[in-house]
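Researcher: Next entry in the queue.
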Amino acid sequence: MEIKNLGIISWLITRASKDKPFQSESLDALAEVMHVKKVLKKSKFDRYYKTRTLCGGLSFLDRVFFDAKYFEMLLPDEVLVVGAHEFTHLNRRHGLQKFVRLILPAIIIGALVGILAFFNFELIDFLPFLDSLGKYGPVWLQARFQFS
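Model: Structure for this entry, 148 residues:
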């Protein structure tokens, strides 16, 4: 299958990290038995990836990633075991829970600090990292927000 048939997120994954998508009938059969097919991508070419990370398996969004070197060392039954483990994460929505616990609070705090800095620099002037910018650092930041 060609790259042009992939979705936007899949295209970004393959371009940014140079991950290689692959098809696996045995993993698809296991996904059917574990009732994970409703969570996985509809496109069979877009479900599983071989990546260059140093993890055995990783489930993210509606895809499963395998370390390429690790994947080549595994026997077919062992691939199914790793796949079953990752399918359990997908079934229990651990990726969404992790997003809510880790990413969402950071986005909210970043947005609040950005709003405070935009409307009134004095409200964030007490932050310790601004002192490390030296005598003129906070003044420069304040001037930057006032004249932009």
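Model: Confidence is low (pLDDT under 50) at residues 1-5.
Researcher: Noted, moving on.
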